[in-house]
Amino acid sequence: VSDESAAGPLAERVPGVEVRSGTEGLSSLGAEADVCVNGVVGFAGLEVTLATLRAGRRLALANKESLIAGGPVVQRARRTPGAELVPVDSEHGAIHQCLRSRDPHGAPRVRRLVLTASGGPFRGRSREDLAHVTVDDALAHPTWSMGPKITVDSSTLMNKGLEVIEAHELFGAPAADEGVGVGFDDIDVVVHPQSIVHSMVTYTDGSTIAQLSLPDMRLPIGYALAWPDRIGTPFGDIDWAALARLDFEPPDLDAFPCLGLAYDAGRAGGLAPAWLNAANEEAVAAFLDGAIGWSDIARVCSDVLDRHDGTDAGDAGDVIEADHRARAVARSVMADRTR
After folding, report:
1. Per-residue pLDDT at 314
2. pLDDT tier at 333, thresholds 50, 70, 90
3. Which residues pair with 85 in a beta bridge?
């Protein structure tokens, strides 16, 4: 339970059951099982990610924020003997599957990673069209059923921007588990409204390998649980006779500036992604509360990122401190905007 004061009374009512509480109690769960599925929402998942990897367990990661904000620290934890990181995000799970087609003992020969985006509920709208959208508008996702925070992130394309940073952390560094040495200039985003192609990998000879399935999160979850095997139950199986079309188009960076901000933060490196992630969480919460408009989310994130001081992450404490500082800056920026 998150409320530490409730742990004692609860323990009395469930004799024989061990009750854990608070951040420490949550993170301790990562070392309990052979595979830990981290589906905690937001930055709060960082400690679970680190505890699981440091225990040498397999981490099935659905909490992208911990890898984005704490990238340098998480990368060190990944080097723990026995530690494995298998992504549960459908896009990164797709890339993980596409990379299975390469020779693990040869040169990567990967030229480009391509993440697909549904485009969210506002695909095709201009910046002017989006000036007065409501919370209900932003939560009306056309493809996926997700929580409010992630659904709003999808509407701004921040979710896709954070996934670009996550892809770089997962696959960009040669030292990563599936590292293929690609940089941010080699990671593209393409809008694909049907959400059938979940991601693609293009190799140096021009061949592109894609992972296709109907949108069903049970597939990437099962993939991460069974790795390196595959589960025997088909989720997201496609009826090819009924699949009429697959469309692709470039994202509109003018209408959806959050995607560009994520590229900027990723290229800046260090704790810049942590600052962006913290600013976005604060701005999205304010939008859901009706305190700021939808278009203000990108403006707040941009203002906060401009104030990033360029420091690097030495340990988890640095990441947590950066998160606190960026949130304080974001709240200050929003207070100034509403005066």
Report:
1. 81
2. very high
3. 59
The distance from CA 111 to its chain's CA centroid, rounded to whole angstroms, is 22
**CA–CA distance from 91 to each of 107, 133, 166, 190, 322 (Å)?**
23, 27, 10, 12, 27
Which amino acid type is present at position 193?
P
Sign of the four-CA dihedral 270, 275, 276, 277: positive
Task: Note whether 20 and 11 are within 8 A (CB).
Answer: no
The two tokens of residue 137 are 């508008």
Query: Would you give the DSSP letter of residue 85?
Result: E
Q: Which of 197, 124, 160, 101 is nearest to 280 (CA)?
A: 160
The pLDDT of residue 84 is: 93
Q: Mind listing the pLDDT tens digit for each residue in 165-203?
A: 999 999 986 545 566 878 999 999 999 999 999 999 999
The pTM of this model reads 0.89
Print burial letters for 255-279: b (CB count within 10 Å at least 16), e (below 16). bbbbbbbbbbbbeebbbbbbbbbbb
